[in-house]
Amino acid sequence: MGKTIAIVNQKGGVGKTTTCVNLAAALKALDRRILVCDFDPQANTTSGFGVDKTASSPSIYDVLIDDADCRKAIVPTVWADVIPSNKALAGATVEMIGMSRREYLLKDALAPFHEEYDYIFVDCPPSLELLTLNALCAADTILVPVQCEYYALEGLSDLLSTIRIVKRSLNPDIDLEGVVLTMFDGRTNLSMQVAEEVKRHFPGKVYATVIPRNVRLSEAPSHGKPVTAYDGLSRGAEAYRALAEELVEKNGYAVTRV
Ligand code: ADP
Ligand code: MG
């Protein structure tokens, strides 16, 4: 039975998409079966895997709103199977309002795939509205990337209270998978201070692996590849490989390096 992990933080630019693409690819390299659902109308995860976000093939929007077959939306890539998004998804929130089970549309769409994949990742948009609510209802756990900068903790309390509400009402089993520190710069006191503060807020939940600020991570998407394929020796690639190993070990599996 696979695990569905939503990558959530209502702040934009904190590394959700970068983490989604590169963690997924690193897990696939560990022989895990990976499905990634792009759930952000910006569709950066889609293009990050080299999938055309302007293609006419079904996207997650068509699956949610027009009842398209989710299996037909899946695009296999070398690094993960991808359910693409596109800008139409931005309008979905309004269209979903009148639908029955509107909070569970994504959960229902992903339900057939639990046996086929070890991990299903959902890359969320930077907000806490109905799309993210759908992701929180579909997810077993949430992974929160936190950027190592001054306002890092701002908004995390809103996120936590949203999760508490979801747990109470819509998805009692949801749990925190972990918190990953991103864009860490070990030369600055600020990065160190933010890391310490986040660890105080989430005892035992912050990954030992920290993602450094690394230009290769910001270049890889324009080549339509995860960093491990774009520059496998970069610090960014090494960090996401380590994060994948840590995540697998935390889920109770030994990692054998080949
Ligand atoms: P989000 O999905 O949370 O909005 P992104 O993953 O798109 O955030 O990251 C925002 C920007 O920062 C992107 O341009 C991305 O390439 C860049 N970026 C993300 N993580 C890193 C990193 N560790 N080092 C350098 N640039 C990064
Ligand atoms: Mg994003």
UniProtKB/TrEMBL annotation:
It comes from the Bacteria. Gene3D superfamilies: P-loop containing nucleotide triphosphate hydrolases. CDD domains: ParAB_family (cd02042). It catalyses: ATP + H2O = ADP + phosphate + H(+). InterPro entries: AAA_dom, DNA_Partitioning_ATPase, P-loop_NTPase. Transmembrane segments: none annotated. Residues 3-175 form the AAA domain. Belongs to the ParA family. Dimerizes in the presence of ATP but not ADP; ATP-binding is required for double-stranded (ds)DNA-binding. Interacts with DnaA. This is Sporulation initiation inhibitor protein Soj. It comes from Intestinimonas butyriciproducens. The lineage of its organism: Bacteria, Bacillati, Bacillota, Clostridia, Eubacteriales.
